[in-house]
Predict the structure.
Amino acid sequence: MSTLRRRLVAVGATAIASTLVIAGCAATEEETTSGSTGGDSGSTEETMEGCDFYADYMGNEGTEVEIYTTIIDPEASLFIDSFGEFEECTGITINWNGSQDFETQIQVRAEGGTAPELAIFPQPGLLADMSDYLVPASQAVSDSVDANYTADWKVYGTVDGVFYAAPLGANVKSFVWYSPKTFADNGWEIPTTWAELLALSDTIAASGASQPWCVGVESGVATGWAATDWMEDLMLRFQDAETYDRWVSNDLAFNSPEVLEVINEADKILRNPDYVGNVQAIAATSFATAGGGLVDGSCAMHRQASFIGGILAADFGAQIVTPEDTDVEGGITTFYFPGVSADNRPALGGGEFVGAFSDRPEVQAVQHYLTTAEWNNKKAADGGSWFSAHLGLKQESVADPVNKVAVDILQNASTFRFDASDLMPGAVGAGTFWTEMTAWFAEGKDSQAVLDAIQASWPAD
Amino acid sequence: MTQLAPKPSGLKLTKGRRKVKDAFSSPWASFFAIVIALLWTIPTFGLLVTSFRPKVDIVTTGWWTFFSNPNVTLENYQSVFLQGNNVTPPLSQYIFNSFAITIPAAVFPLTIAVFAAYALAWFEFKGRDFIFFSIFALQVIPLQLTLIPLLQLFARGQIAGVQVLPDMEITGSYIPIWIAHTIFGLPLAIFLLHNFLRQIPRELVEAARVDGAGWFMLFRKIIFPLSIPAIASFAIFQFLWVWNDLLVGLTFGGGVREIAPLTVRLAEMVGTRGSGWEVLTAGAFISMIVPLIVFFTLQRYFIRGLLAGSVKG
Amino acid sequence: MGILTFGILTARETGWDVIAPNLTITIFGLLTFAAVIFLLFVIGERSSVKAQEWVKYLVFLVPALFLLTIGLIYPAIRTLFLSFMDARGENFIGFDNYIWAFTKPEILTVLRNTIIWTLAVPIFSTTIGLGIAYFTDRMKRGAWVKSLIFMPMAISFVGASVIWRFVYAYEPNLNKPDIGLMSALAKAIGIADPPIWLIEAPMNTFLLIAVMVWIQTGFAMVVLGAAMKNIPDEIVEASMLDGASQWRRFSQITVPMIRSTIVVVVTTVLIGTLKVFDIVRTMTGGNFETNVVANEMFNQAFQQRNYGTGSALAILLFLGVIPIVAYNIRQLRRERTER
């Protein structure tokens, strides 16, 4: 998965941020006061009032910590604001340095000897490749992650048994975006199984009201990732989680019958002209532009991660609503991307991880602070539509109705799996898996041939 | 090939030239030139129009519909100037940094390249062609593969893990950026300038040598003045490349906000909205102004006939 | 203490506080450089004729060679070394990366495309640049025409990629208005269902090449224009008195007189084309049979994080430039003998 794509995760909320800014502010204030529980004014000269929470991080006044990341404005501003109290109390200055060339630059800087103190890795694969330059997380960080996240999330930040990076933000991918108003106006029902989903697609196609599916996989250098998300989501549905894990590690060959079954299911929607219009054009249509069709009603459903809402709000004037808001023009929301049966409800998602290139105490302090419930709730409540997999994250901190559902899924899903392409080796996960799926649309390439080509590119080790 | 009678008029160069302009401009030639120029401009013009359109219009209708439905906004330009967070320096500081990076990063490589081109064109020594063509071939080395070793040198004074220089602590200043641009600009500059310098008539050079001019005076009195048009044309390109560079500034700037050039800021704005083009359009125009001014200014130095009457074909 | 730190934080240095020291170091840098050059010339001109014979190398040639050695030659050797190593540069694996490059099924397309690029871009940009330079050489207001052609060079790459998106964008929904200029034009002349420009091979490769030509023509025009300024008026006037036609004047005087510059321009554009990857990268990501060696190199080294294969592709690019070097050597030798 690319930097670009991750950036979009962060971008997610721009417009929502502006609509929810008042609520966000209120929440922040509340959080700040409740966060500083101590309240006793017996602080020393060194400690400001209300800084008790930060006692463990003291003794690092005047130091600076650079956080290198893909997350840039306007989301960067929200992050910087969220560090205000920490900086004020501890005297540690956090330099937020966002760049869309992060993926290339982090490799260059690490090897060149100008590594930042902390880096927010948008994918576990990149983290693993950089592990030679990273320092293992401190015991405090490790303990905090044990206490605050499900075991899976710690595994993603672990390379060869050594725990390096703590989880930061998260997103959930198993969503179908739609317009509740369009659905209500046409009397369409939310499907709860894959069969119902196909039946609904037929109904919509037959109605002629709009095209059933909005599909676009163009994304610049990362073109094709949107199609890999379809594959991953369906893999979790038509196969079990163990098979998914074997697929990720290539213990299950990419061109095996199990995967073929999945791509054939995807084929039923993605390459059906009655559902998606011009199949070839999917490869040249941006995943965001495709989603714009929801707003003007030219297509009805868009299977895309939680973060797309913010982009559609910013670029196409969409408004994120709840499924009950059936009277909002331009309102969009999500339903759960259904499984084979109604009680088969696995979830696919992704997230980013904070790794350290230095073991100085102030660096460990920042890394630890980012795993606390205090910071996660404060950050989630800032109106930026950000959320994480932190178990201490309160649903009321998250204002966006879709993100509320996402947080619920992250904390309670029986089966949660991380984006497979992010875990596969770069040659596949950021290579042939994208390009072959793109060719699947653009050239109408045979499904088995696509799987064979991906399997052939799997690195020998 | 046309062989001209050389007019070794010593060091004095004729400046006054008769104008033969009008006799030359055939209407068809002008027409052709103008058509191509317009064709070349349409895409950029589309961008200019787009930069004044509201965001929603940009993604839903073509820019040419602007003329039937003019809907002007300065919002995109405002975003370029005002967008940012509480630690983003004002845009003026990025513009200043771009100048502070670009001017030395154009002057240094040009000077060193003129020197080297002079040596390779006029000094007679063994291995001259080998050196020249090695430099020539170096042009093809992809920049990306040079970043890591060069950064290791700047950051730690190491080449291949061996300490060759003391830790200079120059990261986080302009100096590594200047040096990197100088190095990357050299092969092409030497190649282009060598081509111009070797066309300086041998008679002129030899006459000066006979008059007793040493290698240094020869350069100062003859070679340098005669190569001004070539230097001016290359200066334009070096300026442009550095001005528009993102990779070198990003890599060797070490992520220090205080020295980051305009392109770093623009890239940040771009990234902000993965699919939103509107801020980009305005940003691209703002960053274009300076290179265009440079082009107009330096074009004046393309003086006709510095070598008149003595060039060989 | 906390308050103090916070005070510093909120008043992060902006404006003049930052510019002043930066300005100082810039001026200091430039003055130091000028002083060194001045000093070298004073020493050089004062030294004896005999001493000058070696001082001249020290002053004129050594600085460039030193910088090139640390900045390009060493990285080139390192790249060669890495091309025989595995993905992270840890184990020697012989020629595996090269075998990989030549057995990868897509490589033939990539090589074919690279060859098309290196032929088409220099030919088109040099021809058009030469034409414009000639026509505007003595044209009234020629400077305006030149600056319009030059403009694409002044646009940062980020800007250029946006510009061309508005040209090639495709709208699959026939009921929606087009954003792309090409589709709109096609529909205006009666092609109801225009192709998906960036997907249809081999057309898409040529559409990408058009972007590069658009950028490089300005370069060719400026350099060739500067060379034309060196053609003596006497020759031109003489040919006019002879009644030579515009075409004859162009083909028999202008072109031969600036031939070596034409070779230089073609070579430079060609090398630039071999290296270009961002056009392909941003517009198609190398999909739809548009990939070129330079883009695949970037992909391998930084996206798939395999320095071995990335370096091997870079070495292939380097080998690709050898025929051009050979041609230039021949050219230079020929000129010397004519002299």
User: Anything to note?
Assistant: Chain C touches chain A through 29 residues (CB under 8 Å). Chain C has a mean pLDDT of 85. Chain C has two domains: 2-82, 107-290. Residues 107-290 of chain C form a domain with the MetI-like fold fold (CATH 1.10.3720.10).
